[in-house]
Amino acid sequence: LKAGEADFIVKDANQTPLFKYHITIKALPAEAVVFDDAVFQAEMIDKYDSQGKKYLTKADLDSIDKLDVYGEYNGEKIQSLEDLKKFSKVTSLNLRYFRYTIDYTPVTSCENLTFLQLNIANAEDLSWLPKCSKLVNLVLSYFTADSWDGLEQMTNLRYLTINQSNLNIQNADMFAKMQYMRQMNLWDIPTL
After folding, report:
1. Contact at 8 Å (CB) between 150 and 125?
2. Would strands 137-145 and 159-163 be described as parallel, antiparallel, or unpaired?
């Protein structure tokens, strides 16, 4: 939409005006970050616009180290996580309510990520997970994946929690290379 003003008139079948709205569209300032996913943007502004500007700047995004994203916001679904690439300082990421399968590969752009929680979420696989090389704490709760390949490569994990998930462990060898593991919680997993 272009900045400007317009009158919006709603008419009935006989072309009689029922009501009229005057609309003003303001241009975003040059420093405003525009997200690719409109639902993602609305959620981020609602959660992280502490000054009431109705937009976020690069400085705002750089000040966020703990990011919480809901897959469904105001009844609409986030279609892409590509906008995670705009958050360079995030160390803790909680992705919730992605009840539908989405590409989690953009999570790897959070290069300083040490904590990741996927809660009530679905994924095709975890092949992207080993690219989160600084990750030390992983929580998968009510998580479903078609393939768990990639989890066994998470050798730097110190804390792992998997609960209410469809993890299918054929043997414990998948955890053998996790030499720094301090605590592992596996509970309410049907195949155990």
Report:
1. yes
2. parallel
Q: Is 169's pLDDT higher than 90?
A: no
The sign of the CA dihedral 10, 75, 46, 84 is negative
| C-beta separation of 136 from 160 below 8 A | no
CA distance 125 to 32: 34
φ, ψ for residue 183 (rounded to 5)? Answer: -150, 130
The whole-number average pLDDT for the span 25-31 is: 84
- Which of 79, 147, 143, 145 lies closest to 116 in space, CA to CA? 143
Cβ pair 116, 107 in contact under 8 A: yes
* Prediction pTM value: 0.86
Q: What is the DSSP letter of 40?
A: H
